[in-house]
Structures are given as C-alpha cells and as structure tokens.
C-alpha cells in the first residue's frame, strides 16, 4: 500500500516561494507507470492539477501554472517536491500529493502577510 505524506509551511508571505515535499512509503517513486502529482483545492473551488513527475523522471506541467511551478524528486529519499514562486493570496489552498489512485491527506497553505 503506497502512502503519501505532504509537509511544508502552513503560512507563506506574498511574493515568496512555497516549497512542499511529499514523502512516499510503501513503494518507490521510480516504480513503472506511477505519476506523482501535485493537486490543490482552493476554498470553494474544485481540484486543480498543478503538475507531475513520472516514474521515469519526465515532467508534466499545468499550462496555467507552468511559469511558477517547479517539480523535482529525490530518489534516495523517495520524495518529490513542489516549488511555487511568487505566491499570492489566491494560492491559498489545501495541497495534495497524488500518485495514480493514492492520495496524501493534504496540507493547508495560507498565503498572507
């Protein structure tokens, strides 16, 4: 059973870069055909897919967020990370990491001065 756990700051100031880490257990992030995604849900809105890194290391970007997002991985630590630059209050959301049918519990991030 693959388990995912998000970690990162709960509060970020506007214009700063948000960094989140997803730690994976019960499976390797290099396992074939797994795609490791970041997804968020802002208050009152639906789920928004932000991007992914594949088992192969290939990257997939959301066109709407491409200029601000960076996804990477650390295979030694079995983790993948999200960096979102130039955050605004509109980036306030619950951020989830996801792999195929597996989800983390989500972490609340608030952007406020």
How many DSSP helices? Answer: 0
Overall pLDDT confidence: 96
Distance N terminus to C terminus? Answer: 39 Å
Taking the sheet with the most strands, its summary is: 7 strands, mixed
Shape verdict: globular
Count of beta strands: 11
Describe the structure.
The structure is a single chain. The chain is mainly beta and 113 residues long. The protein is built from no helices and eleven strands. Strands 2, 4, 5, 6, 9, 10 and 11 form a seven-stranded mixed sheet that branches. A four-stranded antiparallel sheet has the order 1-3-8-7, with no helix packed on it. It is globular and about 40 Å long. The model has no long low-confidence stretch (mean pLDDT 96).
């Amino acid at each position: 059973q693959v388990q995912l756990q998000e970690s990162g700051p709960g509060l970020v100031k506007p214009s700063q870069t948000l960094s989140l880490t997803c730690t994976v257990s019960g499976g390797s992030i290099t396992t074939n055909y797994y795609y490791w995604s970041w997804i968020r849900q802002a208050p009152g809105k639906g789920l928004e897919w932000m991007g992914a890194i594949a088992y192969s290391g290939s990257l997939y970007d959301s066109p709407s967020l491409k200029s601000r997002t960076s996804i990477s991985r650390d295979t030694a630590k079995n983790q993948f990370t999200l960096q979102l630059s130039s955050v605004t209050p509109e980036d306030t959301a619950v951020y989830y990491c996801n792999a195929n049918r597996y989800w983390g519990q989500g972490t609340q991030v608030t952007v406020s001065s």
